[in-house]
Each structure stands twice: as structure tokens, then as C-alpha cells.
Amino acid sequence: MTEKRKIAFLGPRATFTESAVTFLFPDEVGVAYQTIPECMDAIQAGEVEVAVVPLENTIEGSVNLTLDYLIHEKPARIIAELTVPIRQQLMVHPDNTMRWNDVNCIYSHSHAIAQCHKFLHGQFNQTNYEYMTSTGAAAKYVSEHPKENIAAIANELAAKEYGLTIVRKDIHDYENNHTRFVVLQKEKHSISPPSNLSPVGQKTTLMITLPSDQAGALHQVLSAFAWRKLNLSKIESRPMKTGLGNYFFIIDIDAILDEILVPGAIAELEALGCSVTILGSYPFFHAN
Ligand SMILES: O=C(O)C(=O)C[C@]1(C(=O)O)C=C[C@@H](O)C=C1
User: Fold this and answer.
1) Whose CB among 55, 144, 175, 269 lies 3.0–4.6 Å from 274's, allowing a Cys bridge?
2) How many angstroms separate the CA atoms of 283 and 81, rounded?
3) Residue 145 counted as domain residue
4) Which domain CATH number covers 278?
5) Which residue numbers delimit the Prephenate dehydratase domain (predicted)?
6) Who contacts 66 (Cβ-Cβ below 8 Å, separation ≥6)?
């Protein structure tokens, strides 16, 4: 019998990240960590084989903590990506179902609160918000404090796991609410999602630093992809943290790292004075 491999995720039980792990790696063992950086440290320390972390949400944008930690602290390879539909539920301890309209504090992950901003603004007046390390941590906290009239925003699994009652369903402000999770690994390709899952496509993610003070540098970078007809599905800038105005660009190309087109584009960028790091070339999947 082959030994089960360990997958780090943002815990505790029943977070959205755990549901991504269950979808991609149903036969492996999930190991819960309290923060995204701790998940990434666990790969480097060899405690787990891979980590699954959120990268981007359709309503709230990038998960900067993941991007920054990946770029500045703990480099790792992206080996797969999964897009998951996100449905947020408002839940309370069963003792408090009659007074949920008057909750005095709502607990959740900052991204989950932001995804429900319009609902919360319309429904609650002068309610406080408490940011937790994850939606699961919020649900757990609410279950452990029945005397306080508080609520959590989390998913249906969390309501079941922590014995909470959902009082308002699907409170995210936009129907099309999805989060992209990436699977990170220290070494390349020693574990892959089950072969019965079919990828929707392949992507390559690059981190590019432009040469300083060169007019039209970004235009030249984009044209290296454009004339090769390499479609870009995302371009995002993040501060280098070395001074105002210094940025990295993170670019997703809708193509696998082949032997000609992508290496040709990278060689052209390097000839322009850019520095290029390949963050990964990987299959992407959709859950449901
Ligand atoms: O708190 C969770 O359940 C998570 O898995 C984290 C996270 C995030 O970081 O964006 C993941 C998906 C949702 O967008 C909300 C929260």
C-alpha cells in the first residue's frame, strides 16, 4: 500500500481551501495550518509534499499575502491550479437563531467579509467586524462562544462541522464568485492531481522585473507575447518593496512551457534587460 502524502492547507477544518484540497487530492491527507505563510513554510521544511493556497478571487482580487510570500520569502513552484465557486453563508450558534438580526459582531476572513460588503451594509447597522485567519476559524470561534450574539461568514461545510445554523444563505454580493487556488511545491512534479480529473487547459506564470527607467519597457514586454500570439490571461503588478515606483509584473500565459514559443519570449525579454523567473507551468482545473 502506498503511503498517503501530506497536503498543507489554511485550516482549521472546513475552510474553502480544505474543499479545494478534497477536490484535487481526495486520497491524500490534508494538514491544517493557521496561516498561508505557515502552509508555505511547511513545504520548505519538508513537513508536507505540497501546499494549497488561495491566489485570486473574482470579487476581491489577488490574495496579496500569497503573492508576496511567494515572491519575497519562500519561492516555490506552482504545479496546478483549481478554480472553486465560493458561496458565503451567514451562520450563528443554534442558541442565537432568534436574535441574529441584532448580532453585535461578525467574524470571518477579510476576503469573505469583502465579498459580502453590500449585503452587510444593507442588513446591519453599526455591527463590528472581526477579521479571522480563515472562514473556518471564524465558524469555530462562534461555535465556542454561544453566550455572545455573534455570527460568522463561512461555507456550508463549516456550518455542519461546527454545528452552526445558517440564517442567511448565499450572501456574497455577486453571483459569479470564484477563487483560484494554486498547488505549490518545492521540487518540480513529484505529486500531481489524480489522473481522472481533466484539466481545462495549461498555463505558465512568469515574474518579470523591468529594466529601470526605460521608456516603453512594458509595451516591449507585451509585444514579445503579442507577436507570438501567446494569449495572456492575467497581468498584475506588485511592489518590489525596494522603493516607490519599483514593481514586479506577474504574467499568466495561456500556454504550456513548450520548447519554442515561451522560451523565445523569455529570451527576448532578457535581451531587453528584464529579469524573468518562471513561477510554474501547470494544468488548471475547475471544480463543478
Ligand atoms: O478562509 C477560508 O476559508 C479560505 O480558504 C481563505 C479564502 C481567501 O483567502 O480568499 C479562500 C476563499 C474565499 O475567497 C475566502 C477566503
Assistant:
1) 269
2) 7
3) yes
4) 3.30.70.260
5) 6-186
6) 36, 53, 54, 55, 182
How many angstroms does the Cα of residue 110 sit away from the middle of ligand 1? 8
Q: CA 102, 17, 111, 36 torsion: positive or negative?
A: positive
Is the CB of 180 inside a 6 Å radius of any atom of ligand 1?
Answer: no
14 lines ligand 1 (CB under 6 A): no
Ligand 1 site, residue 112, Cβ cutoff 6 A: yes
- Residues forming beta bridges with residue 249, ordered by sequence position: 208, 237
Asked if residue 210 belongs to a domain, the reply is yes
Instruction: Determine whether the shortest distance from the Cβ of 30 to ligand 1 is under 6 A.
Output: no
Residue 99 belongs to some domain of the structure: yes
Using one digit for the tens of pLDDT, what is the confidence trace for 49-104?
999 999 999 998 999 999 989 888 878 999 999 999 999 999 999 999 999 999 99
Nearest to 109 by CA among 236, 239, 17: 17
pLDDT digits (tens, 9 = 90+) for 146-204: 999 999 999 999 999 999 999 999 999 999 999 999 999 986 556 677 667 899 999 99
Same domain as 108, residue 71: no
What CATH number did the domain enclosing 104 receive?
3.40.190.10
Domain co-membership, 66 together with 181: yes
- Kindly state whether residue 193 falls inside one of the protein's structural domains: no
Please state the atom number of ligand 1 nearest to the C-alpha of residue 36. Answer: 9
- Can you give the residue range of the structural domain that contains 24? 6-84+177-185
State the distance from the centre of ligand 1 to the C-alpha of 264, rounded, in angstroms: 36
CA 133 / ligand 1 centre spacing (Å): 9
Query: What angle do helix axes 261-271 and 217-226 make, rounded to 10 degrees?
Result: 160
Q: Are residues 49 and 108 in the same domain?
A: no
Structural contact between residues 17 and 157, judged by C-beta atoms closer than 8 angstroms: no
Give the largest CA-CA distance in the chain: 66
**18 Cα to the center of ligand 1, angstroms:** 10
